[in-house]
Design a protein that fits this description.
The structure holds two protein chains of two kinds.
Chain A: H1 10-25, H2 30-35, H3 42-65, H4 92-95
Chain B: H1 3-24, H2 29-45, H3 56-82, H4 102-116, H5 120-131, H6 136-143, H7 147-179
Helix pairs in contact in B: 1-2, 1-3, 1-5, 2-3, 3-6, 4-7, 5-6, 5-7, 6-7
The chains are: A mainly alpha, B mainly alpha.
Chain lengths: 143, 181
C-alpha cells in the first residue's frame, strides 16, 4: 500500500488497480511495438488524399471549360431610353445655345460678301429643266 | 548506458509505459502504440538522452507524453488538411477476455469513461499517482509542471472523478430498478 494514499482514496486506488490489471492483460509485446511499421495507419489517409487530389483536378478542369454567361450592364449615366428621339423637337438646336449678334441663319454674312450678302437683284437662277417639246400621246397624228 | 542496456530497461518498463501512453492518447490503443514506438525510437537513436536528473521511469514518461502531444498535433493537422473525418478510427475497443471477470471489466470501462471527462492535466496526474503509484512530486516532474500545480490538479481531479463515478453509479441503480419486475 502506498503510504501517500489516505484511507479515503482507497476507492480510487482499487479502481485504478483493476484498470491496471486489465491493461496489463492487453499490453502488446515490447518487440512487436518496436517493430511496428512507423505510421502504421498510412493507408487510412492515403485514400482521402487521393480523393482530394482527384477532386481538385476535377474542379480545375470544370473551371477551365465552364464559361459563365456574361451580362454587360450599362452604367446608369450611359443608358438611353429607346423613345428618347421623341423628345427631340424640330428646331431644338436653336434652343441649345445662345445666339451671337452677326451670326446665325439671317444675320450678316448669311448670303455671302457685300451689303446684300453677295446677292444681286435680277439674278435669278436660269430654268434648268424646261422641256423643249411637249410629248404627244402615242399613235396620234401630228399636224 | 549503452543501447542494449537501454533496450532492456525499456522492455522492463514497457507495461507501465503502455498504460501511460494510453492515458496520453485518450485511451486510443493504436495511437498509444504509435506514440510508444516513436518514443522508444527517440530513446534508442539517442535523440532523447537521459541526463539522470530524475528516475529513468519519470524521464521516460516525460518523453512519451511529449511524443504523444507531437503526434496529436500532427494528426490534427493531417485530419484538417486531408479531410480525414471519415477514416477516423473509433476509440480502441477493449475486449473482455476470459481472464477478466465481467465486473472488473465493467468497472475498468466506467473508470476510463469517467477519466475521459476530466481535463488532461487532472487525468494525467491521477493516472501517474494512482495507476503508476508515483508521488505527486514525481508526477509533476514527469508532466513538467510545478509541484503546487500538480497538487491542485490532483485534488480537483479526485473530487471531480468521484462525482462522475457517483453519478454513473446512481444512474445505473435507477436503470436496474426500472428493469426489475
Amino acid at each position: 500500500m502506498n503510504a501517500l494514499f489516505p484511507n479515503d482514496d482507497r476507492d480510487l486506488q482499487e479502481r485504478f488497480a483493476a484498470l491496471r490489471r486489465h491493461d496489463a492483460a492487453h499490453t502488446p509485446d515490447f518487440a512487436a511495438t518496436l517493430r511496428k511499421q512507423p505510421g502504421g495507419r498510412r493507408g487510412s489517409w492515403l485514400k482521402p488524399a487521393l480523393a482530394a487530389a482527384l477532386l481538385l483536378i476535377a474542379l480545375s478542369a470544370a473551371r477551365k471549360y465552364w464559361k459563365p454567361e456574361v451580362t454587360v450592364t450599362a452604367s446608369i449615366t450611359e443608358w438611353k431610353s429607346p423613345t428618347d428621339f421623341l423628345l427631340e423637337t424640330s428646331g431644338h438646336e436653336l434652343l441649345e445655345g445662345v445666339p451671337k449678334i452677326g451670326e446665325g441663319s439671317f444675320g450678316e454674312g448669311a448670303f455671302g460678301e457685300g451689303p446684300l450678302g453677295g446677292w444681286q437683284p435680277g439674278e435669278w437662277p436660269a430654268p434648268s429643266a424646261v422641256p423643249s417639246a411637249t410629248p404627244t400621246p402615242s399613235g396620234k397624228k401630228q399636224s | 548506458m549503452n543501447s542494449s542496456d537501454m533496450q532492456g530497461e525499456l522492455e522492463r518498463l514497457h507495461p507501465d509505459c503502455f498504460g501511460w501512453a494510453l492515458c496520453c492518447c485518450r485511451q486510443r490503443r493504436d495511437d498509444a502504440e504509435e506514440a510508444l514506438q516513436a518514443a522508444y525510437l527517440k530513446v534508442l537513436d539517442g535523440k532523447a538522452r537521459f541526463q539522470g536528473g530524475s528516475s529513468l521511469r519519470t524521464w521516460l514518461f516525460g518523453v512519451i507524453r511529449h511524443t504523444a502531444a507531437e503526434q496529436r498535433r500532427r494528426r490534427w493537422l493531417r485530419d484538417a488538411l486531408l479531410l480525414n473525418w471519415y477514416s477516423r478510427m473509433p476509440a480502441a475497443i477493449w475486449r473482455t477476455d476470459q481472464h477478466d471477470s465481467l465486473g472488473e471489466a465493467e468497472r475498468s470501462r466506467a473508470l476510463r469513461t469517467a477519466l475521459e471527462k476530466l481535463p488532461a492535466r487532472q487525468r494525467e496526474v491521477l493516472h501517474l499517482v494512482f495507476y503508476q503509484e508515483m508521488t505527486v512530486d514525481e508526477a509533476a516532474l514527469a508532466m513538467q509542471i510545478a509541484k503546487g500545480t500538480a497538487r491542485i490538479h490532483f485534488e480537483r481531479g479526485k473530487s471531480r472523478l468521484r462525482e462522475i463515478l457517483a453519478g454513473n453509479d446512481s444512474r445505473k441503480q435507477v436503470f436496474l430498478k426500472k428493469e426489475a419486475p
